[in-house]
Amino acid sequence: MVLQKRLDYGFNGYQVPTIPRATRSARKRVPFRKRVEGNRISAFDLLATVAGTLLLDKESSPASNNAWNAEDQSAVEKNNVKEERQDGDQSLKLETCNVSELVPQTNDPNYSSRESPSLQNGTQFGVTSAITTSERLDYQKLINGKIKNEMGGLACKVETGPFVSRTPDDCVEPVSENKVLTDEELDRTNKASSGEVADKCPLEDPLVLDGKPPAVVSSDSSIKAPSFGEHDPFISFPIQQYDVNVVSRDDDEKSSGCTHPSPIREPFRSTPRIGDRRIRKILASRYWKVALRSKNATYSNYDENLKSGYCNRSTYKRLRSGRNFPFKKRKFLHYTSESNSDGGTIGEGISDLPEKNINGKASILYSKMHGVTGEPSSLADQRKSFNSRDPHVKLRIKSFRVPELFIEIPESATVGSLKRTVKEAVTAILGGGLCVGVLLQGKKVRDDNKTLLQTGISRDNQMDSLGFSLEPNPSHTSPSLCPGGSPLTLPHDIPLPLASLGEEANFLSDNSILIHEAAWFKCMELVSPGKLSIKSYFGYCADSVYDLILFLARYPANPGLVNQVTCHPSTDPCIPNACDFIESNNDCTASPTDMFDKSTTESKALVAVPAMSVETLAAVPVHKKSKQSEVAQRRIRRPFSISEVEALVQAVEKLGTGRWRDVKLRAFDNAKHRTYVDLKDKWKTLLHTARISPQQRRGEPVPQELLDRVLNAHTYWSQQQAKQQQQQLPESCLPHYNSTMIGSGRCDDDENILG
DNA sequence: ATTAGGG
DNA sequence: CCCTAAT
């Protein structure tokens, strides 16, 4: 993974934290008991948890990936199951909206399970292929977002398949293909998939978790904020992404060549919860690793799965030809931003197009592009003969990813009004808020005046590297790296311009970059589109700008993401992690689940932390500390520099001890990460350091001169304090006690202190 | 929100 | 640097 923990603890025996922590100022000051009791953790902690997960994701070797992942996944699954059962909450959550639901028709009898030994054998079958066989009914229900248990059964079956298991014996027995699952069986399989079995069965297929959208949605507790529903007349629908995908249902992730995971498209997915999404992303890398093993990358996953499931190619071919596709030959011209899938199609003729999805709606945008000069070309013809060219470039783009939306609608609103609202929102975005970007070989084609021929889009060898993206209208959103969400179009072999990070992107002294937690939130898609006002930082940094970009690009939940990653080089070399806070200008309406304390609205993070997501994600880190996860994480350690000590000593000399707020304001007002508690603690430490012998001191040595001043200041102000108390309590204090205290001080240094 | 102090 | 209690 991209990010690395920057600093470790090791300070006075403090435990080395796996994740950093927000600064005190940004943390919610809630009574401890209340915090523990609440079924939530702070957004920072949640983020930290996720961050830790990602780190683990990186640090885990491929061989060991499955190990921890299986455990975590099992925990996650378990939580999911538990949540779904215990949670009768029917709150609404509209997280994903498939603008065009693309469903393959599989009427071909060849797709029966009987002829699908690979499925029964549990061979490398993803959800898609499984569905296209015997699970058609379930599939349909899945699409329609209906029945949870069936979903669970499906998901379970896929999960526990040998696809992720070396030996089928390790896993729970596959659910019979055509059998209607009973509740008991579902329960059993759910358990198996979630816990007992999962430990033995590494789950590699990220799609697995997608297999429970409808039920999950309805029972999604992420929206189940305390204030939600009964008290809050509004329901917020975070429509976070629109997986509007390109042609057919191939969930093909592999052929982009990118080694980084990306959001998986799920054509049949309805509305998974946030947590699932996150998990899916985590698992995406595994999925890829599997997928990348496929030899022939020109086929889609679907085909891959089919192929791998059959012993010989003839069988595969038969099945392939039997697919219920209206065209016989397909040349995949366009690859979506997310994947290589058959986004555009160069067919043999327009007659092939457009095809329709099962809803009977044209699911594609068919556009013809004309070459202006020279000889336009058609890929199909080009392959036949370079001499006779069709002057048209035929593209077929089935779907686009649409940026995040957020909708708020009264609880009393009708479904119809909800539909209209969503439609309006989508229409508004598609109407004016977006523009289309063209990517060729991962690079944006910015010159709109170039012809396709000039650009090379019409060339045969460029067809498979052409991509489109929906981008926010520049007038609405500041330029960002990955506006439309095109993670896979980022070529990992092409250096990306640093300008992608904007003017504020700077290196730290060690050539690393700090990632602001707001960006983390965005990256994780865990942030609710509310107002972010985060004044703290995380001590994670990317190894390089490129890594950072890649990382961010993989999570294009928010077009403005990159802009929220502001990195400031520390002005003090001793404070390598110093960075400013960033305030999001996200102006969306906050979700009811935004529950951070707004007494002070300024320095609080208003981030929704869905209870379900919290619980789910909390189980992700290595140590399954479902309970302990509520414990906040430590901040990153930031040793005081000499100059800071100097400033502290000077301020205390002037103001005295016990006025840490004033000290803060006077000397550390600009250091957002230094709270007055920190200063107080540092003074305490300094005092202790000054009193012990130099041999006992550790860390960066503090000049003796400063330590002397610390002692003197402490003595002086102790005397002052005593004097004041003596004055305020003239009779109650014993005279000899105060005189003793005064006598212990070196009053002759007082003038120096104050001077 | 601050301060003080133990951990 | 964390946590809590007391202001």
TrEMBL record:
<dbReference type="InterPro" id="IPR031105">
    <property type="entry name" value="TRP_plant"/>
</dbReference>
<dbReference type="InterPro" id="IPR057625">
    <property type="entry name" value="TPR1-6-like_ubiquitin"/>
</dbReference>
<feature type="domain" description="HTH myb-type">
    <location>
        <begin position="632"/>
        <end position="691"/>
    </location>
</feature>
<feature type="region of interest" description="Disordered">
    <location>
        <begin position="60"/>
        <end position="123"/>
    </location>
</feature>
<dbReference type="InterPro" id="IPR009057">
    <property type="entry name" value="Homeodomain-like_sf"/>
</dbReference>
<feature type="region of interest" description="Disordered">
    <location>
        <begin position="250"/>
        <end position="271"/>
    </location>
</feature>
<keyword id="KW-0539">Nucleus</keyword>
<dbReference type="GO" id="GO:0042162">
    <property type="term" value="F:telomeric DNA binding"/>
</dbReference>
<dbReference type="InterPro" id="IPR017930">
    <property type="entry name" value="Myb_dom"/>
</dbReference>
<feature type="domain" description="Myb-like">
    <location>
        <begin position="632"/>
        <end position="687"/>
    </location>
</feature>
<protein>
    <submittedName>
        <fullName>Uncharacterized protein</fullName>
    </submittedName>
</protein>
<feature type="compositionally biased region" description="Polar residues">
    <location>
        <begin position="97"/>
        <end position="123"/>
    </location>
</feature>
<feature type="compositionally biased region" description="Polar residues">
    <location>
        <begin position="61"/>
        <end position="72"/>
    </location>
</feature>
<feature type="compositionally biased region" description="Basic and acidic residues">
    <location>
        <begin position="79"/>
        <end position="92"/>
    </location>
</feature>
<dbReference type="GO" id="GO:0005634">
    <property type="term" value="C:nucleus"/>
</dbReference>
<dbReference type="Pfam" id="PF23603">
    <property type="entry name" value="Ubiquitin_TPR1"/>
</dbReference>
<dbReference type="InterPro" id="IPR001005">
    <property type="entry name" value="SANT/Myb"/>
</dbReference>
<dbReference type="InterPro" id="IPR029071">
    <property type="entry name" value="Ubiquitin-like_domsf"/>
</dbReference>
<keyword id="KW-0238">DNA-binding</keyword>
